[in-house]
Amino acid sequence: MKLVVLIVLLAPAFAGADDAHGDDPCTAAVIDPVVTPVRDIDLDAQRSACMRQDVSARLLSHALIDTPGFHGVLGGDLALGGHLIIRKAHELSAQLRVVDFSFVQNAVNKVTNAGFGPLVLGAAAGNWIGAGARGAIALELELPYTRDQMDTLHVSGQLAGLVTGKLADRVILHARLGTLGMYAESVAGSTHRLAFRAGTDIAWHVRARVALMGGADISAGWSHGFDHVLLRAGVHWRMTRGGDWRLRAGLGAPVGGAERTNAVLDLAVVHGL
Questions:
Q1: pLDDT at 67
Q2: What is the mean pLDDT of residues 91-113?
Q3: Is 94 exposed, middle or buried (0-12, 13-18, 19+ CB in 10 A)?
């Protein structure tokens, strides 16, 4: 019901645009938002309501630092993924985290760790919701026992409602509302998390091959209360004139709430198919 309310409330914002089918906000892939997730395996990743067909390699880094001395966590992961369009209005996706590296330091110890997995599968369905605007519902699910810790059952996923539409000739709005959850179980016991998030991004299509981004997300429930407001900015650039090779770069910073992560950096190379 909340997803339906989101679409109904946002649709009038695009009423001034031209006829939807002649003014598609999804024509240029560089308008897709940068991705600066805080949760593991991109559970709270940002995306548009546009159906895409591409492959990608992405490096995501995060930092949690307690001052004045350096105590905290530095981490990064390399993930390979892709999207496939089915019948124009449906999309299937897959993402595999090839390596996940972390460095942890406290007052006593320094520890490094490298891991593998998991495999995340996704599906999305979208359609026109008004003049110059598209809406979609997207689902992602982590397959259990696809991490290197095979002695632990770990499953997580997200369900989100999405809207993408033109606010002006070169200005695109992305909005999202959804929920994400995680469950893990081993011989030591079990744990679970559930959170709700909402967010928006503005893409300014400054050149035919370049778009600048700015956005914010709010999350609650993961830490049994208010989690954070995530502020971010970035750029999406189509590097070639004849093909669709794109570079996506973004930086996010959570503020307020219980979230302790200081910064998230997203670097990705995407090839449209």
A1: 67
A2: 88
A3: middle
Tell me how many domains the chain contains.
1
- Which residues, 6 or more positions from 17, have their beta carbon under 8 angstroms from its beta carbon? 23, 131, 132, 133, 165, 166
**Model pLDDT for residues 185-218, shown as the tens digit of each residue:** 988 889 999 999 999 999 999 998 999 999 999 9
Q: Residue 250: pLDDT band by 50, 70, 90 thresholds?
A: very high
Res 29 pLDDT > 80:
yes
The residue written with tokens 């991705």 in the block is 35
CATH number at residue 177: 2.40.128.130
- Res 70 pLDDT > 80: no
- Domain extent at residue 252: 2-272
Whole-structure pTM value: 0.87
Distance from chain centroid for Cα 107: 34
pLDDT (0 to 100) of residue 177? 97
Are the C-beta atoms of 57 and 136 separated by less than 8 Å? no
- Rounded CA gap, 224 and 235, in Å? 33
Q: How far apart are CA 235 and CA 47, in angstroms?
A: 14
Torsion on CA atoms 109, 99, 34, 82, rounded to nearest 10: -170
In 3D space, the residue among 217, 126, 125 whose CA is nearest the CA of residue 180 turns out to be 217
Q: Which residue matches tokens 């599906």?
A: 123
